[in-house]
């Protein structure tokens, strides 16, 4: 009988020891592979987030990796225990149990990571949704800065207009000149442009609407057809002549039209009303207003000097001033030496010209639209001729532009004519209109480009000067015609 030590060397026991050694090696291999899979799975959410458009649940690849590890273990066990099924199958139970436990814990960890990532994403989305944007507060601040500047300049211009001598220039022109002086002396704050643009566009239109409260259509009717015909003829003459002269002097079409309307109708207010209709930019509008202001002031002084030499009565001199001068302030200042009769006659003639601002603005809007459409049609025809497809590039007809602020101007004039609005309220509305338009003029002055004025202002000034001289001669002739008509 062999001893116990001798039996240890038998083939059966040696095989059993070998099987145990193989099982231990297999367990080590499983642990290494599971550790590798766990590390890969820990890094996998970042990779998936960067490379996949849609996020997948991290537990799914974890379970797949655990299944592959278990199958590798089974293959290794079969290779290492092919000689003995019982000895090889004994350690398989704890190994499988260990793999399942690791798989379950890995899936739980992956689910927790997915939940944390989803929560973080939700927090980021909510934060982005509720974060206040920079638009409202900063835009309001920019608007307040520009409007505050224009209001200060408009009030300063109103105070300066009370000074003898400066009252000839008027609040609107003084506001423009103050804006230009500010722009030349100091930089405009970076937060101001939004408010300046609002004043020069929105407040301008509101001021034009309120300005209708100054006009009574009955005054135009009572003036008679002769005064109305003279006013309409002067507007037509000045518009055509000044525009033609300015274009001959190489002044741009929009600036030429603004200069012509400022000369023929009512100065800065006419330029403000016509500018949106012909799509003039701020530089062109500011240059037009400045030119009319300077030359209107020059002609006002000249009228007061030649008044004793004309031989007109007070009413005739008032009509002459109102029918030919540029601004209402110019008309009042020039007619003042003739007394109250001259001032009344001048205002009737001038307000008749102002009443024609609305139809002139409508007509010029149509003119500008047709001019733009014709230019677009010529460009399209050139492109079509080059491409051989002229039939498909016919320009589309545009509708007639409707200047709603001019409609509002007429509505305000109608209300004032009917008498629905009390006189103190109408007077306050007119004062508010001049304040709003003065703010718009200040905004234009703060935006004016002095280089543009030097480049185009001199030629426009020469055209307005020559056109105003011709208009004054026409006004003198009209006085003699009215005298003959009795």
Structural commentary:
- This protein is mainly alpha-helical and 486 residues long.
- It has a domain of 317 residues.
- It has 19 helices and no strands.
- The longest helix is centred in the first third of the chain and has 41 residues.
- The chain is globular.
- The chain starts with a helix and ends with a helix.
- The N terminus is likely disordered.
Task: Give the arrangement of secondary structure elements.
Elements: H1 4-7, H2 11-51, H3 59-80, H4 85-89, H5 92-130, H6 135-160, H7 171-185, H8 193-211, H9 217-223, H10 225-248, H11 253-278, H12 282-310, H13 314-324, H14 328-335, H15 340-355, H16 357-387, H17 404-418, H18 423-447, H19 450-485
What descriptive keywords fit this protein?
0% strand; single chain; globular; mainly alpha; 486 residues
Name the helix and strand elements from N-terminus to C-terminus, one letter apiece: HHHHHHHHHHHHHHHHHHH
Classification by helices and strands: mainly alpha
Sheet of most strands: none
Based on Cα principal axes, name the global outline: globular
Strand content: under 5%
Mean pLDDT: 73
What is Rg?
A: 44 Å
> Approximately how much helix is present in the residues?
over 70%
Cα(first) to Cα(last) distance is 165 Å
| Unreliable spans | 1-20, 41-105, 125-133, 385-401
Total beta strand runs: 0
- Number of H/I helices: 19
Short description:
With 486 residues, this protein is an all-alpha fold. The protein has 19 helices and no strands.
């Amino acid at each position: 009988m062999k001893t116990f030590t001798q039996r240890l060397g038998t083939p059966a026991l040696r095989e059993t020891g070998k099987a145990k050694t193989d099982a231990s090696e297999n367990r080590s291999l499983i642990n290494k592979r599971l550790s590798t899979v766990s590390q890969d799975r820990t890094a996998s959410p970042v990779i998936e987030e960067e490379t996949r458009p849609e996020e997948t649940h991290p537990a799914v690849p974890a379970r797949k990796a655990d299944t592959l590890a278990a199958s590798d273990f089974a293959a290794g066990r079969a290779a290492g225990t092919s000689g003995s099924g019982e000895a090889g199958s004994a350690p398989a139970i704890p190994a499988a149990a260990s793999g399942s436990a690791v798989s379950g814990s890995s899936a739980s960890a992956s689910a927790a990571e997915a939940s944390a990532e989803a929560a973080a994403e939700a927090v980021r989305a909510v934060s982005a949704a509720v974060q206040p944007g920079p638009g409202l507060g900063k835009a309001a601040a920019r608007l307040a800065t520009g409007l505050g500047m224009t209001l200060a300049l408009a009030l300063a211009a109103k105070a300066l207009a009370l000074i003898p001598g400066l009252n000839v220039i008027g609040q609107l022109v003084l506001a423009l000149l103050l804006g230009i002086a500010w722009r030349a002396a100091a930089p405009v704050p970076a937060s101001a442009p939004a408010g300046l643009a609002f004043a020069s566009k929105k407040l301008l239109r509101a001021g034009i609407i309120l300005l209708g409260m100054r006009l009574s259509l009955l005054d135009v009717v009572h003036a008679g057809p002769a005064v109305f015909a003279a006013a309409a003829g002067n507007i037509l003459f000045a518009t055509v002549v000044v525009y033609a002269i300015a274009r001959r002097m190489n002044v741009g079409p929009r600036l030429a039209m603004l200069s012509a309307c400022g000369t023929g109708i009512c100065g800065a207010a006419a330029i403000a009303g016509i500018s949106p209709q012909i799509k003039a930019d701020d530089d062109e509008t500011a240059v037009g207003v400045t030119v009319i202001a300077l030359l209107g002031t020059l002609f006002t002084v000249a009228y007061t000097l030649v008044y004793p030499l004309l031989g007109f009565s007070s009413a005739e001199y008032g009509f002459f001033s109102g029918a030919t001068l540029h601004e209402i302030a110019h008309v009042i200042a020039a007619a003042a030496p003739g007394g109250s009769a001259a001032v009344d006659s001048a205002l009737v003639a001038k307000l008749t010209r102002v009443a024609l601002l609305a139809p002139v603005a409508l007509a010029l809007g149509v003119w500008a639209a047709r001019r733009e459409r014709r230019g677009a049609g010529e460009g399209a025809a050139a492109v079509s001729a080059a491409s051989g497809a002229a039939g498909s590039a016919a320009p589309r007809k545009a509708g007639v532009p409707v200047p709603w602020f001019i409609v509002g101007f007429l509505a305000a004039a109608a209300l004032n004519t009917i008498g629905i609005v009390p006189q103190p309220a109408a007077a306050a509305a007119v004062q508010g209109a001049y304040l709003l338009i003065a703010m718009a003029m200040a905004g234009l002055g703060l935006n004016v480009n002095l280089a543009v004025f030097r480049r185009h202002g001199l030629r426009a000034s020469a055209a307005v000067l020559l056109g105003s001289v011709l208009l004054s001669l026409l006004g003198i002739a009209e006085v003699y015609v009215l005298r003959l008509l009795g």
